[in-house]
Amino acid sequence: MPGQYIPSTDFFELLKFDKWVHAGIFYVLMLLCLNLIYKNNLSNVYIYLFLLLCIIYGGLLEIMQAKLFSNRSADVLDFIANSFGCIVSFIFHFLYLKKQTPKWDFLNKLSTK
């Protein structure tokens, strides 16, 4: 296949405002899920489950845009931005949890729930 036919993605396309909006919305979605987990005192398994569900939800939204809605199109970079927002929220959550508890309590808290 000649090089001119290979699709390329510009790195700066990932930095567009639209992608930050996607990441921000899914960041908040994951924060709300984490809040739900801690308010209801659920186990840590639910954190991973909700992370997975939020990422799948972002993918399904892009598939629905491609297949179900007119005047809409799917974008893989939107899905990446959605997933990025979920993962960043997940990471910040654990950094916050680690900061709030003593060093050894943090490890115990993760293993007991």
User: What is the helix content?
Assistant: over 70%
Mean pLDDT, to the nearest integer, reads 83
Estimated structural class: mainly alpha
Number of helical elements: 4
Cα-to-Cα separation, first versus last residue: 53 Å
Question: Biggest sheet, open or closed, and with what strands and sense?
Answer: none
Large-scale geometry: elongated
| Number of DSSP strand runs | 0
Name the beta content range. under 5%
* SSE order: HHHH
Low-pLDDT sequence parts = none
Q: Radius of gyration, rounded?
A: 18 Å
Strand and helix layout:
Blueprint: H1 17-39, H2 45-67, H3 76-100, H4 103-112
Helix pairs in contact: 1-2, 1-3, 2-3
Features:
single chain; 113 residues; mainly alpha; 72% helix; 0% strand; elongated
Q: If you had to describe this structure to a student in words, what would you say it looks like?
A:
The chain has 113 residues and is an all-alpha fold. The chain has helices at residues 17-39, 45-67, 76-100, 103-112. Helix 1 crosses helix 3 (76-100) and helix 2 (45-67) runs antiparallel to helix 3. The chain starts with 16 loop residues before the first helix and ends with a helix. The model has no long low-confidence stretch (mean pLDDT 83).
Summarize the structure.
Helix content is 72%, strand content 0%.
